[in-house]
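Run: sequence + adenosine-5'-triphosphate -> complex structure.
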Amino acid sequence: MSSLLEVRGVTKSFDGFRAINDLSFQIGGAELRAVIGPNGAGKTTFMDIVTGKTRPDTGEVLWGEHSRSLLRMNEAQIARAGVGRKFQRPTVFEDQTVSDNLVMALKAARGPFAVLGWRPTTASIARVAELADEVGLGSALTRTAGELSHGQKQWLEIGMLLAQEPRLLLVDEPAAGMTLAERELTTTLLRRLAETRAVVVVEHDMDFVRRLNCRVTVLHQGAVLAEGSLDHVTRDQQVIDVYLGR
Ligand SMILES: Nc1ncnc2c1ncn2[C@@H]1O[C@H](COP(=O)(O)OP(=O)(O)OP(=O)(O)O)[C@@H](O)[C@H]1O
Ligand SMILES: [Mg+2]
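>> structure
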């Protein structure tokens, strides 16, 4: 299998503490993957390394068909190469409408120079509607983002990320603060998005992970402890000892 992202032998210490310890991880081009593991296992740090926010001490992070090194790129270059990241707290512009938020994301996706003198075109208006539809906000285009529910804000932010047309989407703890109905819609959304791109989801909510119905990687002390179906990893005695049986 040729992978879209390959992390190979990555180590990262903070003040002598190994948050990531010889981590190796691969994800395919159109794959949904859940990453679980106890607090402090290194899940967020892994995303920080892939997105260029944190530099590892050793190892390689390889991207795409030509195995380009993401470690030679800065955060903006990595985003432009096709890595999108969804943070836990939605960062939508609360005073703007859903539509305006998506327009801003489209402008940003076109780069700083395209913003000057930019006017909405028929194509971009259609793209905004398409992005809104993709995240279930097609009928909320004229609503102010601040009026949306927490879950809807998260979906809007995912829609804004999709404006950059990422090939890999990293999502850290999406279920937090969502209602059960929102969590169910979110699993459906993430599964659909992973049909055409890679999606890596970090989540503690096991019901949410079960509904994702995908391969699961268990991290512990900065390395992969187990990998496979949720049923497979939840039967693993080591996984039970360090995570599930707490
Ligand atoms: N910038 C930093 N400076 C110092 N220590 C850090 C930094 N970032 C992460 N760490 C440490 O690295 C370890 C891994 O943290 P990380 O946030 O990646 O864990 P996590 O698996 O995301 O945990 P959680 O499930 O609680 O979100 C923790 O011990 C954390 O304190
Ligand atoms: Mg975390």
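>> summary
Residues 43-44, 172 surround magnesium ion (ligand 2) (CB under 6 Å). The first strand starts at residue 3 and ends at 14.
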